[in-house]
Target: Glycoside hydrolase family 127 protein
Amino acid sequence: MTRTRPVARLRPLGLDEVAITGGFWGHRQHVNATATLAHIEGWLEREGWLGNFDLAAAGRLPEGRRGREFSDSEVYKLLEAMAWEIGRAGDPGLDDRFRAIVARVAAAQEPDGYLGTVFGRPGQAPRWSALEWGHELYCLGHLFQAAAARATTRPDADDGLLGAARRAADLVCEVFGPDGRAAVCGHAEIEPAMVALARVTGERRYLDQAALFVDRRGHGLLPDIEFGRAYYQDDVPVREATVLRGHAVRAGYLSAGAVDVAVERGDDELLAALARQWENTVARRTYLTGGQGSHHQDEAFGQDWALPPDRAYSETCAGVGSIMFSWRLLLATGRPQHADLVERTLFNVVATSPSEAGTAFFYTNTLHQRVPGTPARDDEVSPRAASSLRAPWFAVSCCPPNVARTLAGLAGYVATADDDGVQLHLYAPATVRTTLPDGRRVAFDVETGYPRSGTVAVRVRDGAADPWTLTLRVPAWAEGARLRVLPADGPPTEEDVEPGTATVRRAFADGDVVELHLPVTPRFTAADPRIDAVRGCLAVERGPEVLCLESVDLAAATGGRLDDVVDVGVDPTVPPREVDGAVVVRLRPAVAPDGSWPYGPPPGRDGTGDGVDVPLVAYHDWAERGPSTMRVWMPVVRG
Amino acid sequence: MTRTRPVARLRPLGLDEVAITGGFWGHRQHVNATATLAHIEGWLEREGWLGNFDLAAAGRLPEGRRGREFSDSEVYKLLEAMAWEIGRAGDPGLDDRFRAIVARVAAAQEPDGYLGTVFGRPGQAPRWSALEWGHELYCLGHLFQAAAARATTRPDADDGLLGAARRAADLVCEVFGPDGRAAVCGHAEIEPAMVALARVTGERRYLDQAALFVDRRGHGLLPDIEFGRAYYQDDVPVREATVLRGHAVRAGYLSAGAVDVAVERGDDELLAALARQWENTVARRTYLTGGQGSHHQDEAFGQDWALPPDRAYSETCAGVGSIMFSWRLLLATGRPQHADLVERTLFNVVATSPSEAGTAFFYTNTLHQRVPGTPARDDEVSPRAASSLRAPWFAVSCCPPNVARTLAGLAGYVATADDDGVQLHLYAPATVRTTLPDGRRVAFDVETGYPRSGTVAVRVRDGAADPWTLTLRVPAWAEGARLRVLPADGPPTEEDVEPGTATVRRAFADGDVVELHLPVTPRFTAADPRIDAVRGCLAVERGPEVLCLESVDLAAATGGRLDDVVDVGVDPTVPPREVDGAVVVRLRPAVAPDGSWPYGPPPGRDGTGDGVDVPLVAYHDWAERGPSTMRVWMPVVRG
Model:
């Protein structure tokens, strides 16, 4: 593909170059592969969302069609997840299942390339007639991303998916190209997807089409709706916006696609606009967990500083969208803060959604549960955000396959390369094997118990005659980090490293070890006072993990005397500390006026009684022990 | 009407017995009469909601019908407002307009009594086929309340409104009676309305029908919806519920009707259940302003303690519904806390909605405006909650006529009577003339500059041979109140009175004066610490009024140095005080970390720089000076 002037600083590595071999994320990938994918496939069959393609192929639609207008996309996201998983682990049984689904999808494709089960047939609305809510291009976007993932991990597969995607993409270019309808989809996704397809096929016009969609948005081509055009980012052109707004998933997907376009076209102005939007969004509209979107009503960003923990929507899919955006900015700019947010969001949003078993999910991710939820039934479709407990499936079930595709392809986020070396962004037991543009071979293993341990060891597996540069991300929270270099045949050296990145450039020999020591002592965290909703509170973090207080632990620690997190606050004079492997804080009953009207003269004190030590749990592990109340931000009380 | 055993402690007084003669509320009533009523009538014509009745009468519906499914109700609410206003001021021109609208409405009534423009015609859904969202009985309820208001203030009017209401009510009894459809309306309103109609007509079966509707609710007769059956209070039977929940307007209207039913039927169990719900709702789910409903998504109550000021929905109509509920509990129980909430809600929700000119309205009433809003255009219909500025009309325009009917009939909330005297609940310049059941004549004037002044003088105008009891409400905030009795012909006496009620029983002589002195010094108010969203904040109140900080005043006081209320906090060591008639607080710039990530180690201090004195304004007066940011709850900062 002809590029004007690609501006990306870093090159992503493929699943043939990086593998996660264990640890926190290795375990998550294993659960995803062995439980989640089959779980999703089963529900897609059960709910008829896969069957819709069979009905389409048989010419029987619209009668009998099931699911919402975007249900096709869940099938495509499952295909993408399977494609990454096949690339990761190469399971032939999974490959058979993948091909079987592709066959059913492809059978529904129409001669002109159109693919979709909702529009265009007698008895259905015409194609492209409801761009604001129809999700028609959105669904095709997910088809294209599945095809791109497959083409990346199995370039020689003859399953027909890439061909189907290309035919559909050609149709999109024909209908919506420069001489076609000047329109965009209400839900961004076609934008990054067409760039992905352009990259695997070399088709320049897919990129141009993506650029057209990006440039068109923000000019009011979509109708005004109750939530305003900001809901689908059609209020301000992408290159003029200063912050993300509106529906958080849409905002993330659009921004990711726009970075792709900027990078491929060497559009520095567009890239700078997106970087500015990212900065402002992260500084003012992002939860401690990395979660984004504080409105239930429209699943949208709130205004600056409006980040209520209890009504946090923090949709799982918005976390995925945020990672897509941040990752692309990281590739484009090399700035480690983008990787910081990727890591934070992975640990505290993406890892929070699925249950330990991988068969139930949070659609939204509240930071404060006020009322113990009702357990979702294993065999029932849940509303999106009704319960504090994870549910197996939702009427709108975008999160399960979105989590699955992210986990299956996660090794792709571990490391990147540039002309002179390799950059490690996520810390997990891993193998990295790649070749730099000039032919230098880079091979090392990562050995770590991160995030439980703060020590990350990079063990070089293949000496190179020429030096290369190993770059290690030092997270922003890691004040006091140290870097040790332990050559296979020489004395070790050690130095302090500042948050940002640490680099070691040398002619690495087989057996050389570089060790990064990150301080993962638990710490109190406060919020910018402009975030009104958590004023006077502290959270506790440990490494990249946000912790939380669950009522089940409060009840256990107080012998049942206190069983609701609303009743206590945290003693700020006793730092959080580890006791028998658990992070513990000192809590104390909060003074609560016992009145019929909750407002009155300022009280003299806020805490009462003796403190009690209560263990916290990692936020991603909450709600695994039945209904509970929970809070990430604990009010400060003094004795 | 036969009553089993009415349990009401207090008797409401009619507009022929109480009149507001000036002051804060007298001015509001004047604006309502001279500007608001015509404004509403004009918009009802312009938007075609009145014209819908003409189309119905001409047999031309459904073509050309305009407005939402509940637009009929706005016409009825205007009629109710006009009926009260005619009763209040007796304007004959208004009576002509009233009759003209009644004629258009009545012309649309069908032979069997059905009245409505949305259902039942060819091309429309069948009658009563969409009870969950159709608002069919809700609309009729407002018709009945208009008819009841008219029958109360003009019992001899021959305009046909009461007859039309009775025919429709008879149809409702036939369709939904004991042998009819066991159903309820998704939006409560028919319940209090049928009791009101029963009271003016003496028709027992209207009361029985209201009781049936109340008893049926909470048994899942309405379908489950995304928001759950709690949205329309169909989740728990009224007599089993412990707190208000779901859509706040529906909850208020239903509760009001249920109190009516309980009182008329002597149903102590039901009354106790409602009193309990009121207590819990006021203690845990009510804003400082009296506003109720913290969710934008479903216009609903949040969970206990979930009262974010910035996402406060606090719908104007929910304030009206809350007043309806509280007022009925006051009548039933005589407890002054119900009148306290009525007054609080009147001053801080109902009075906040309309502009000074009475021609623009807040639909919702946020307690914290983060971003200056866009002025609404005088000639444009606004979405419900999009702007921080009042708008002339909304797509859903329930608030203008709801405010209008409340203000027009407001004298009815000033005082009540029982067997031995009169109780004053609201303080305004007023005349009270009534006769006790045994024939004792009570006549007095109220002279006061309340709420600006805390002195309320009751001047007896008609001596009575026999003693009677004057009861004065002492608001809960009025610690240190004093009561003086100044007989026309004797020495004055004076005593401390506690919040609750103060009574004077004597054989009053013409010219006797009873003076209540309420301390209206401005005061700091803190919130129960379980209300997380305003932790570490103080509000300022003065008498019954909640005050707020507007950016326009901050900018003026700092010479433009600070122009956003997000930048400052309040010095808690300097009490609010009055300077040149304005309440002033000491503000200080808040320390705001200047970083790209808004979370980090706890800072050492929260305030910086010198304090500056800034005037506050009454919350009901905010947003009268153009776009601004605003907050009721100010963060505490120390220097």
